[in-house]
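Design a sequence for this backbone.
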């Protein structure tokens, strides 16, 4: 399956007063990873939206293992785990770069939805081919 990695520094605004990352930021990093893996394989959300499609998260899970902290550099590793008729399951690992410690892992399931009917629809064939090959 397709995999992509990006790096992100943790800023003070990402943390609480103890310098520990606020839990919801992991979901933001999942979104960053998802956006970049699609971009790597030739698509970004604006391309998808031009086709009258949106790709909302319909399921999410995050397992927190260790705390990310202020000024850490993390690796956001995203893997396409499964491609269905109208959905994609993405798997994520959040890793502290300096020691390769797994901080969190999880997944999202995103469904392609036609904005005119607001019903699920098939993944565009060009995107499917790009992600499957």
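Sequence:
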């Amino acid at each position: 399956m397709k995999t992509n990695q990006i790096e992100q520094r943790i800023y003070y605004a990402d943390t609480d007063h103890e310098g520990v990352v606020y839990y919801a930021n992991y979901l933001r990093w999942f979104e960053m990873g998802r956006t970049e893996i699609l971009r790597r394989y030739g698509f970004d959300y604006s391309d998808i939206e031009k086709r009258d499609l949106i790709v909302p998260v319909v399921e999410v899970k995050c397992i927190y293992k260790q705390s990310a902290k202020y000024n850490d550099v993390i690796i956001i590793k995203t893997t396409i785990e499964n491609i269905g008729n109208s959905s994609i399951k993405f798997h994520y690992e959040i890793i502290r770069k300096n020691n390769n410690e797994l901080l969190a892992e999880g997944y999202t399931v995103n469904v392609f939805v036609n904005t005119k009917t607001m019903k699920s629809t098939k993944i565009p064939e060009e995107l499917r081919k790009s992600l499957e090959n």
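The chain has a mean pLDDT of 96.
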